[in-house]
Amino acid sequence: MQSLVTSLVLSRLDLFNCVLVGLPASGIRRLQTVQNAAARLVFNIRRSDHVTDALFCLHWLRVAKRIRFKMAVMAFRSIHGLPPSYPYQAGRPGLRSASSQRLIVPRTRIPRSVIDLFWLLVLRYGTTYRLHVTSAPSLSIFRNRLKTYLFNFSYPGIVI
């Protein structure tokens, strides 16, 4: 049940995290209720019971922290020259130029000022964490340290 809920619900919550930056608290609360309902479904918890322990046992960050996590990972990638893989594709599979290994940057209708604002937000979220998190030598170590840091920040009263 956990893998089914994770693949169906959490993947949708994480899909457009870059758009959710700056969302009002009311919008974050609505998304948090979706995540809480998913945790209740996994553990078969009544609606009147607290869901914090279930989120902790599932190792799920709350929605606001998930957004920060994704933005910080994007900032780490941009600082270290690791672009996200989805907008860049090497060649096109059906063409003769597929083996040329040239990067194709998709066209966009978004004004340059919006893109600049997005990267400012990414860098803002990515540089607000402690030095031991941001000085990680690789992306996987950075992700592990950041998730541990945010997890401990999200659930301070719960001891493992």
What is the compact description of this entry?
The protein has one domain. By secondary structure, the protein is mostly helical. Residues 87-92 and 100-105 have low confidence and may be disordered.
In words, what does this structure look like?
With 160 residues, this protein is an all-alpha fold. It has one domain. Helix content is 60%, strand content 2%. The protein contains eight helices and two strands. Helix 1 (2-15) packs antiparallel against helix 3 and helix 5 (63-79) runs antiparallel to helix 8 (139-154). The chain starts with a helix and ends in a 6-residue tail after the last helix.
What brief labels describe this structure?
single chain; two-stranded antiparallel ribbon
Q: How many discrete domains? A: 1
Helix content: 55-70%
Q: What proportion of the residues form beta strands (DSSP E)?
A: under 5%
Please report the distance between the alpha carbons of the first and last residues: 23 Å
Give the overall silhouette: globular
Quaternary form: single chain
Rounded radius of gyration (Å): 18 Å
* Contiguous uncertain segments of 5+ residues: 87-92, 100-105
Strand order of the largest sheet: 1-2
Number of extended strands? 2
Write the H/E string, N to C.
HHHHHEEHHH
**Overall pLDDT confidence:** 75
Largest sheet: 2 strands, antiparallel
Number of helices: 8
Structural class: mainly alpha
